[in-house]
Amino acid sequence: MIVNTPTMLVRTLCSLIAMAATTVVAADFAALPKTATLETDSPQIIALGKKLFFDPRLSATGTVSCNSCHNLMEGGDDGRATSMGVDGLTGGRNSPTVWNAVFQSSQFWDGRAKDLAEQAKGPFVADVEMGMGVHDQVVGRIQQIPDYVREFDNVFGQGNAVTIDNAVTAIAAFERTLITPNAPLDHYLAGDKNALTDAQVRGMDLFQSTGCTECHFGPALNGWDPGDDEAVFVEFPRNLDSSFVRKYDLDSDRGRAEATQQESDAHQFKTPVLRNITLTAPYMHNGNVASLAEACRVMASTQLDTDLSEDEISDLVAFMESLVGEFPPITLPRLPSRSGTSVVVEFK
Ligand code: HEC
Ligand code: HEC
Questions:
Q1: Which of 151, 207, 316, 324 has the most CB atoms around it within 10 Å of its CB?
Q2: 66 annotated binding-site participant
Q3: Could you report the per-residue pLDDT of 40-56, keeping only the tens digit for each?
Q4: Can you give the pTM of this predicted structure?
Q5: 212 marked ligand binding residue
Q6: Closest ligand 2 atom to the C-alpha of 213?
Q7: Is the distance from the beta carbon of residue 120 to the nearest atom of ligand 1 less than 6 Å?
Q8: Of the bound ligands, which one is closest to the alpha carbon of residue 28?
């Protein structure tokens, strides 16, 4: 023991120094974790969740799947200002990407779902999304497809395995695989100083010095640090005098207050993920801002009451280009069928 003490002391000191050093570097930016799957996410449950994600038969009209509004073959969104669900109906909010959505402590712009599984229950029964009246109808559709029933039984155990809770558990397991590590920023943080261009480094410095990192910090630049499960909300727009507030109608959506009905939650929003942000125009909760450059102007003005020069805006945009990561290859799943009859069209 006595012999060991100095060594232990040195070790402790070293790890304290290392911790302090990591905190300094990681305070604002951090590499995106390379995996987000849980121990319970077996290949079978992930494969089932993937099928459900791509299956339009789980919508009232048989035309809308999760992938319709969260296109995994591109940015994980739909490129529209506001999404279009069954019967051409549109809602009031922009579809956020599902890529890296796992790295958030709450889901939806107003954080009204605590995790991916709870979130996935919403769209099935939202009138302007998949339009099924109640969850039992979703379960009913799945139950009519024998190979789905067998697959649910295999994954969740025999007997009444087709439930909405099991369906969203599987979807969430699949969504935990939708992550894009190894972006140029990650290589840079790992020590490859050539991974970013000069403009990107300037943009990164400006992103910190202007104050964007007050909200956009951590691996997904959304104010989330690994292990955080406390949901955090910030005020948007903060500077109501900004001319952008009226121009883009940024204050009629009351954000979190729409979900909680609490006046104190008015205009509180979750800070969104900025990974792959170049792929998910248009921007903001209402999709009213067409370009990334304009989104940066809006943020500087509404959140930090600052005007940036056009050179500075272009450096910020360059920095955001360094946030596009590696997308895992995704093959379209083969969906199980009911032999001889459709499950969507009911004939009398
Ligand atoms: C009609 C288009 C549409 C469909 C279909 C749809 N979504 Fe969404 N999704 C949206 C919109 C719009 C939002 C944001 C709504 C809000 O915040 O109020 C959203 C939010 C989300 C989020 C939260 C992301 C974040 O950053 O907060 C996840 C995860 C998600 N959807 C997954 C799914 C899954 C899984 C399905 C299928 C069960 C699905 N969506 C079906 C449009 C759609
Ligand atoms: C006080 C917190 C805060 C600060 C500071 C801040 N942001 Fe944001 N940012 C947010 C919130 C909240 C949103 C979502 C706004 C909404 O609901 O439409 C957002 C949205 C964005 C978006 C659009 C995301 C999307 O998916 O549509 C971009 C891009 C962005 N911020 C970049 C920046 C930049 C660049 C800066 C610095 C100039 C900055 N932000 C400063 C909180 C902040």
A1: 316
A2: yes
A3: 999 999 999 999 999 99
A4: 0.93
A5: yes
A6: 5
A7: yes
A8: 2
